[in-house]
Design brief:
Blueprint: H1 4-12, H2 21-62, E1 66-69, H3 82-86, E2 91-105, E3 110-118, H4 120-126, E4 133-136, E5 147-151, H5 152-158, E6 165-176, E7 179-193, H6 198-203, E8 204-208, H7 209-216, E9 224-229, H8 235-242, E10 251-254, H9 255-285, H10 287-298, H11 300-308, H12 313-344, H13 346-357, H14 364-367, H15 378-404, H16 408-411
Parallel strand pairs: 3-8, 5-7
Antiparallel strand pairs: 1-9, 1-10, 2-3, 2-6, 2-9, 4-7, 5-8, 6-7
Helix pairs in contact: 1-12, 2-9, 2-10, 2-12, 2-15, 9-15, 10-12, 10-15, 12-15
Length: 415
């Protein structure tokens, strides 16, 4: 079908003549429509990939890949598990923790918070909080000194700085001559951290694990062990592998159970956005139908002459498929280049626009993160470009088929 003559004629029809300028304008809009659709689709999916990767990194930077707990979320004699965990090559680190809800009060305000007791020398094995300390040091949490490290947003809300005193109030009750009162203790702010994720910066406070045990009446027990594994995407397999080797009966959960609904929602939104934007590409691709119909109408006499000279219906069909393929190919390639360029520079372009208009597109308390990340996946690029080209190719079939059905005698009767 696609012989050199057919290709030559099909390419020639892409060039405008004086009386076909309007058709060429419609052709140009078809190319630009496909290009814009492909650009938007690549850019949006790259931003959503980046958003998901950034959230996963920040969430798992403060939470654990997996958690070992005992009955009633209490783990006793946790050091006995260390020998078993040391033998597991896929377990990179572990750290005990005590967790509970508390109210934190300063001279200015009161706020609810998640209180987490940690061992500073163990914590760096399973989380990246050390990298995000903006004031003080994690080593400032010493047993018996009742120091506390607050998220930056929480510290700003309470109006406290390093060295200030705050009061931590827990739900546990204490009997006094005045009656039943909640347990409370004065703490000294020894540091602040900023993860860049509002959920942690606003609602998390860290204290030394011995102080947490006294405050929450845990005695020698802890809430559990947090584990860091060598591959966070295969946590189910790793957990099933190490679970039978632990001495005793324990409950092991992983990050996919704690945040599965969240990441599943992101995946669903990503698929929906892909379908919606692909419809935009499809609308642009099917503009090729109107373009080719107009070209066929304009070239009916030319087609009839070619038919009288021996050109077959399939060859005529090939001419217009070449024309439609060129339009789709140029549109898909332009969109591909535009999408790649935009996706790779989103993190530079968006801050520039924000500074230019004096606005902020993403509020951290609404979107969890305040920057617009981008992660370009080449598999997405090839898939989107290929689908746009395929839709363009499909759009050429009907007009090309109609051109191949033109009868030379009827067209040339009045010429």
């Amino acid at each position: 079908m696609f012989k050199p003559l057919i290709v030559y004629i099909g390419l020639r029809y892409t060039r405008a003549k004086r009386r076909t300028r309007f058709i060429s304008f419609i052709t140009l809009t078809s190319v630009l429509g496909i290009a814009l659709g492909v650009t938007a689709l690549i850019t949006v999916l790259s931003v959503m990939n980046g958003f998901e990767a950034e959230l996963r990194e920040r969430i798992l930077g403060m939470t654990s890949h997996a958690t070992i707990t005992g009955e009633n979320s209490v783990l006793r004699d946790w050091p006995s598990l260390e020998s078993s965990l040391k033998q597991e090559s896929r377990v990179l680190g572990w750290a005990p923790y005590i967790e509970g809800q508390a109210m934190i009060s300063s001279e200015h305000r009161v706020s609810g918070s998640m209180l987490r007791g940690i061992l500073p020398e163990y914590e760096s094995r399973v989380s990246e909080v050390t990298k995000h300390i903006v004031a003080g040091k994690l080593d400032g949490l010493k047993p018996g000194e009742f120091g506390i490290i607050l998220g930056e947003e929480l510290a700003n809300y309470l109006g406290v700085m390093v060295g200030d005193k705050i009061t931590v109030i827990t739900p546990q009750l204490t009997s006094t001559p005045a009656g039943i009162l909640p347990r409370l203790k004065r703490f000294t702010v020894v540091g602040m951290f900023k993860v860049g994720m509002f959920e942690f910066d606003r609602n998390l406070a860290l204290i030394q694990i011995d102080d947490a045990a006294k405050l929450l009446r845990m005695d020698d027990a802890v809430s559990g062990l947090r584990l860091k594994l060598d591959d966070l995407f295969y946590v189910h397999e790793i957990v099933r592998e190490i679970s039978p080797k632990l001495p005793g009966s324990y409950y092991i959960s992983d990050w996919t159970q704690a945040h599965s609904n969240f990441f599943r929602a992101i995946q669903t939104e990503k698929r929906v956005m892909f379908i919606i934007l692909l419809l935009i590409v499809a609308v642009a691709a099917f503009n090729i139908v109107s373009t080719l119909v107009m070209v066929v109408t304009d070239k009916r006499a030319d087609i009839a002459i070619l038919r009288t000279q021996g050109m077959t219906p399939s060859a005529v069909m090939g001419i217009f498929m070449v024309l439609g393929t060129v339009i789709g190919l140029f549109g898909a390639l332009l969109g591909c280049l535009g999408g790649i360029a935009l996706a790779l520079n989103v993190e530079t372009i968006v801050p520039f626009i924000e500074r230019l208009f004096g606005t902020h597109f993403m509020s951290a308390d609404v979107y969890y993160i305040s920057e617009l990340p981008s992660k370009l996946l080449w598999s997405d690029v090839w898939q989107i470009t290929g689908m746009a080209f395929l839709l363009s190719l499909l759009a050429t079939i009907y007009p090309a088929w109609q051109a191949s059905r033109i009868k030379p005698a009827e067209e040339l009767r009045y010429e």
